[in-house]
Design goal:
The strands form 4 sheets. This protein has a 7-stranded mixed β-sheet, with helices on both faces. Strands 1-2-3-15 form a 4-stranded mixed β-sheet. It has a 3-stranded antiparallel β-sheet with strand order 13-14-16. Helix 2 packs antiparallel against helix 10. The chain is globular, with a radius of gyration of 21 Å. By secondary structure, the chain is of the alpha/beta class. Strand 13 and strand 14 form a beta hairpin. The protein is built from 14 helices and 16 strands.
Length: about 425
């Protein structure tokens, strides 16, 4: 329906169908070429058909794509992630970010014996039922209350889901901590993205994350960092950049090299609930494709080439990108800003600072959709919601071309 099996990639009148990707470019069924500034919503940190990943896939395909047993590549990838992230003693693989979040939350429930969770307005954590609350707000809703709003974002949720979810305000330290303390005896976990992705690429303030860590630790609440998008922002993820250690972390996107793969991990005493050596584990975990050898092989190749040097270079072109876009908005007299962190950005057509999802909702999102289409017609691909994600395959020429295309689209009156 709608020409896609992913609602998130639909745009009217219909999404272009891609047939090939190479480096920072992809090609549609009509032969049009696009410079990719979205990279499958942050997955392809090295761009399309990255040679080391392609070679790893070829080698693993010849040796076997998956087994009903652990594989060497699976263990190798787990070691890489645990080495990079100090807060992760042990981890398990899953096939999607949704599953990783589901199991992290289930671990928190089992470890604490508590029934409720807390999440933030604008925080998207996949399709798990408990997370389908308030990840997206409407302009009409935010006008009704300055307090956090609880609303279901989909039909079909079982009754009672919303009652066990506490919604918190993002980047509002005192209010968020007060709400956590008010529900402390009932909360199993607080889950958030250190940098909200789908909510508008909103970086958390460092003091805000530190306060959440202090408040949850005091109350025995598991703090879960959803680093499915934000892991690309530092060698050890955003948590290393912020210097705040959660109890549990979920991973996805870049760790897969472009294949279906995710992970969740944390402190050994929490992860022990999954260990089959402890008799029937309190939390059995299954999944036919969890940590499949071919996905893990791609992930290993991807992570091995995501070095401190490549991340520094990616951050440098990110700073250039942000500066160029801000210069374009100033030159054209456009009320707009670029929110971002490292290689991840979001354009917001708003004169007001965007520090939370409410600011995203208050911006002109129809104008963003027009900009996205105008750029598509000029051969540049970004998300209709204004999200931009860079890859190591991009260079100065592509960054300059994108900024020039934005300027041309604004001056032409198409936007």
């Amino acid at each position: 329906m709608g020409g896609t099996t992913r609602t998130s990639v639909y745009y009217p009148p219909y999404p272009a169908c891609m047939v090939r990707g190479e480096g920072c470019r992809m090609y549609d069924a009509d032969g049009n070429c696009y410079v990719d500034f979205l990279n499958n919503y942050t997955v392809l940190i090295h761009g399309h058909s990255f040679p080391p990943i392609v070679e790893a896939l070829k080698q693993q395909a010849e040796q076997g794509v998956c087994f009903s047993a652990p594989s060497e590549r699976e263990i190798e990838l787990a070691e890489i992630l645990c080495e990079r992230v100090d807060s992760v003693d042990k981890l398990r693989f899953a096939s999607s970010g949704t599953e990783a979040v589901m199991y992290a939350i289930r671990l928190a429930h089992a470890f604490t014996g508590r029934n409720m969770i807390a999440k933030f307005e604008g925080g998207f954590h996949g399709a798990y039922d408990d997370c389908q609350i308030s990840h997206s707000l409407s302009a009409e809703l935010i006008e009704t209350s300055e307090a956090p709003i609880k609303t279901a974002n989909t039909e079909g949720l079982p009754s009672g889901i919303a009652e066990r979810v506490v919604i918190l305000p993002f980047n509002r330290e005192a209010e968020a901590c007060a709400l956590i303390e008010a529900h402390a005896d009932q909360l199993a976990c607080v889950i958030l993205e250190p940098v909200q992705g789908a909510g508008g690429v909103i970086p958390a303030e460092q003091s805000f994350l530190a306060a959440l860590r202090k408040t949850t630790e005091k109350a025995g609440i598991q703090l879960i960092f959803d680093e499915i998008m934000s892991f690309r922002l530092g060698y050890g993820g955003a948590q290393q950049v912020y210097d705040v250690a959660p109890d549990l972390t979920t991973f996805g996107k870049i760790i897969s090299g472009g294949l279906p793969l995710a992970a969740f991990g944390g402190r050994e005493e929490v992860m022990a609930l999954l260990d089959p050596r402890n008799g029937p584990p309190p939390i059995p975990q299954s999944g036919t494709f969890n940590g499949s050898a071919i996905a893990a092989a791609a992930g290993v190749a991807c992570m091995e080439h995501l070095t401190h040097e490549s991340l520094d270079a990616l951050e440098a072109i990110g700073l250039d990108m942000k500066a160029r876009l801000q210069a374009v908005f100033a030159k054209t007299g456009t009320a707009a800003q670029v929110n971002g962190f490292g290689s991840l950005f979001n354009i917001h057509f708003s004169a007001e600072p965007v520090v939370d999802h409410r600011g995203t909702v208050g911006a002109d999102r129809e104008k963003l959709a027009r900009l996205s289409m105008a750029l598509l017609l000029r051969g540049y691909f970004m998300a209709p919601r204004g999200m931009i994600c860079l890859s190591t395959a991009l260079g100065p020429a592509e960054i300059e071309g994108f900024a020039n295309a934005v300027e041309d689209a604004l001056e032409s009156g198409e936007v």
